[in-house]
Amino acid sequence: MAESSQEEAIANDISTSRLRLGEIGSEAISVIQEITQRLTPVELKYPQCLKTYELMKQDATVVSALNAGYIQIEKRFTGAKIRFKDDSERSKEAAEFVDWCLKNMDNQTLRSVARNAATFRENGFSVLEKCYTKINAGKYKGKYKIKKLGLRPAMSLYHSEPFVVDGDGRNITYIQQDPNYFKNTISGSLASMQSNPLKIERKKVMLMGYNVTDDRPMGSSPLRGAFTAWREKSLIQSLEVVGTSKDLAGTPVFRLPLNIMEKAASDPTSPEAISIKSYMQQLANLHCGEQTYMMLPSDLQEKSSTAQQYDISFLGVQGTGKSFDTMALVTERKKAILDVFGAGHLNVGNDSEGANNLAESKNSLHNSYIEHDCNIICESINYDLIPQLLAMNEIFLPEDELPYIEAGLPEEVDLEGVSKAIQRVGAIGFIPKTPEILNEMFEMLGFHYRIPEELLGKENEKAYLEWSEKYLP
């Protein structure tokens, strides 16, 4: 018996005596920022960065900034026009042919092409394969037209070597696509499949990039610049959710006599220890919402007529001990993400700051970003697609006579401002009343009417003068 008591005393001294049951260590949330910085080179390294960008697109702020740009880009290419040299008949004929081709692609429109091309805003670059087919009927029978401009997803490119360069390392010769990307991988992992990449000649694709420089032909995604702000914003939002759940449910605080706790600590098998363990389980169930009530003894403390020996209360997160505002932290990172895309106007009015002048300024900045993105797409069409299309049809023109595409207006025209400008400039005779100028004015003012085709051109000048005398006194 004495030997048993001695062994029990030794065991209690080693394992349970003065053992603190609560949590002592910390999750060290403050170092998560440092860990994020260390993981940044891994998460933003190709091709892992493409998966990271897909994850970032699930964030409401990121997708709002992206969509705000896509909507404007699609709108501008919906109203895009094919321009040509006015005094060149062959330039006009080539422009009509290009316009016909862009309007008669198979199951594609210029708007959808622009949307596919603009994916360089996510991945840093976009690849569109030029597919042609022969015209079998109609005015242009026997010529070649654009069948489609097929998007080749960035994730589908061969990960080990997406771009093959020549021996000098200066020019891209092939784009390589991984055929495994399109296979059903339910029965086996993608990594276990082996196949030869599909090689697409550089001259057969339109390659567009964002933030392209001479040493970085693949470009750099704006999402790379928003990565740190997105990571921190996601962490703070998750902590806010945890804090909110604590504040709503309340943290249970349980009070019981000191002698009960001492007996439980000295003997884990005692009735006191068993009862405390039962109370702890009930508290956990209350906090998780798995239990709606608990029963406690109603004995009063000695020398007191009101204070009970056993007591429970629920304390919410009051926020008085915090030296920071999580909402402000989230807002700052949200602004940082929107500013990467020049889309700060989306946040105007959501915080204490908000004014018409500020909104107009930020909207003007966003239009500059959209103008830049549209120029990237237009350059690829004007200097790659159109010259190749015309050359395939044996149409060779000097550079100044080549037709070109011009994106539509960035936003709705201020009719009051335009009408004032026309009136003031026209009053001093600085607006020639040519059919081309009049058509541009009708377009800016939103009129559907245009000068009839039979009145256009130098050969129809007499007929136009008769029309203008009748309708333009």
Q: How would you sum up this structure, described in words?
A:
This protein has 16 helices and ten strands. It has helices at 2-16, 32-43, 48-56, 60-78, 89-103, 110-117, 120-123, 222-225, 227-249, 258-266, 271-288, 326-340, 356-392, 415-427, 435-445, 461-471, and strands at 81-83, 125-134, 144-151, 163-165, 172-177, 198-201, 205-209, 251-255, 311-315, 404-406. Strand 4 and strand 5 form a beta hairpin. The radius of gyration is 35 Å and the shape is elongated. The N and C termini lie far apart (125 Å). The model is unreliable at 21-29 and 187-192 (pLDDT under 50).
Task: Write a brief structural summary.
The protein is mainly alpha-helical and about 475 residues long. It has helices at about 1-15, 30-45, 50-55, 60-80, 90-105, 110-115, 120-125, 220-225, 225-250, 260-265, 270-290, 325-340, 355-390, 415-425, 435-445, 460-470, and strands at about 80-85, 125-135, 145-150, 165, 170-175, 200, 205-210, 250-255, 310-315, 405.
What features would you highlight for this structure?
473 residues; mainly alpha; 3-stranded antiparallel beta sheet; 16 helices; elongated
N→C terminal distance: 125 Å
Shape: elongated
Q: Compute the gyration radius: what is it?
A: 35 Å
Rounded mean pLDDT score: 80
Biggest sheet architecture = 3 strands, antiparallel
Describe the strand arrangement of the main beta sheet, using strand numbers.
3-2-7
Given helix and strand content, the structural type is mainly alpha
Could you name the ranges where pLDDT drops below 50 across 5 or more consecutive residues?
A: 21-29, 187-192
Q: Tell me the strand percentage band.
A: 5-15%
